[in-house]
Amino acid sequence: MTPCKYGTHRVIEPKGVLPQAAYQIDSTPMIYENEVLIDVDILNIDSASFHQIRNACNDDLTKMRQMMKDIITTQGKMQNPITKSGGMLIGTVREVGSMFHDQTLKKGMRIATLVSLSLTPLHLVDILDIDLNTDQVRIVGQAILFDSGLFSILPPDLDEKLVLSALDVAGAPAQVNKLAHKGDTVFVIGAAGKSGVLCCYQAHKMVKPTGIVIGLVYDQAQKRELDSLGYCDHILVGDATESIHIYEMVHRVTQGRLADLTINVVNVQNTEMTTILTTKDHGIAYFFSMATSFTKAALGAEGVGKDITMMIGNGYTESHATFTLDIFRESKALFDLFTRRYT
Ligand code: NAP
């Protein structure tokens, strides 16, 4: 019998669930015939997860290293037990199973996986280095890609670390491309972050010349950087957890109209109500943030009587990887920004 294409044959506990929902999976680095074995170089830890680990360890690299080691060895995958999120990896293909769906993938190819680390079996040998600036972790280890797993061959014209950081959030700008329309008001919460700037870029492209893009950033330095890119009509500075304060600012700059589309790309908890209050009735609130609580969003929207469409930020949308990498070929400013920040 061919092993399950979704990887359930590697689930240890609890039985019956898929690997993402499992507490523990089997990360033995020997593949079944429909899997791929990858020698991993770098993990790009999801921002909400990395933020949680940093806080829990007070930025102490030794403690962070130990915490990540414990997570991976206990669960067989790099899934933060609090945020439940993962991240992405890049590495070199070591072996391709004879039944894997894409036989163009060959030993020695450099790839980024497009499925979350929260479901990817990971056998850790060592953690070499943790970069607090980029959320990237250099490791020695092997990962398994299931038959259903998506991947992207690393393009020769872009730096690998840039590609890794961009692909981690590729679902966000690709969704903005689908959801934003000419004339819309788009509000991006966490606009100076990795996905934030990509969303502002794409929103600007979609809504102009009549629509407006509003970004919320944390501090003046982020405001200056975002301002220099020229994608936002208004850049608000504030704490996204202070819902009423942010609502009042958005209310003011939109003359009470609020946003047709609000994109939440922060990495901290308690920003659901900010997203909901700043979205106009019948508008769309898109929660890409992994720190989003379904309960807080659902009950919170009901509590304030908001008739809006609330969407969970699917990390995948068709062709999202190509779409996002093409942004760096289109925009020299974003290419330079990501090169400076993440490579
Ligand atoms: P990022 O680069 O760390 O950006 C987050 C931004 O939010 C940063 O600029 C951060 O500022 C800002 N921020 C944090 N707390 C804030 C607050 N209270 N008020 C205002 N701004 C605040 O993160 P990212 O990589 O773009 O990821 C964004 C979110 O998407 C994360 O939650 C991540 O987990 C999630 N994600 C989701 C998927 C999916 O499939 N849905 C995939 C990947 C990532 P500072 O830098 O000053 O803290």
Indicate the topology:
Layout: E1 11-13, E2 24-25, E3 36-45, H1 47-56, H2 61-75, E4 87-96, E5 110-113, E6 122-131, E7 136-145, E8 151-153, H3 160-168, H4 171-179, E9 185-189, H5 194-207, E10 212-217, H6 220-229, E11 234-237, H7 243-253, E12 259-264, H8 272-277, E13 279-287, H9 294-303, E14 309-312, H10 320-330, H11 332-342
Parallel strand pairs: 9-10, 9-12, 10-11, 12-13, 13-14
Antiparallel strand pairs: 1-2, 3-4, 3-7, 4-5, 5-8, 6-7
Question: How would you explain this protein's 3D organization?
Answer:
The protein has 343 residues and is of the alpha/beta class. It folds into two domains: 8-154, no CATH class; 171-342, Medium-chain alcohol dehydrogenases, catalytic domain (Quinone Oxidoreductase, Chain A, domain 1, Alpha-Beta Complex), CATH 3.90.180. It has helices at residues 47-56, 61-75, 160-168, 171-179, 194-207, 220-229, 243-253, 272-277, 294-303, 320-330, 332-342; strands at residues 11-13, 24-25, 36-45, 87-96, 110-113, 122-131, 136-145, 151-153, 185-189, 212-217, 234-237, 259-264, 279-287, 309-312. Strands 6-7-3-4-5-8 form a six-stranded antiparallel β-sheet, sandwiched between helices. A six-stranded parallel β-sheet has the order 11-10-9-12-13-14. Helix 10 crosses helix 11 (332-342). The mean pLDDT is 97. Bound molecules: NADP nicotinamide-adenine-dinucleotide phosphate (NAP).
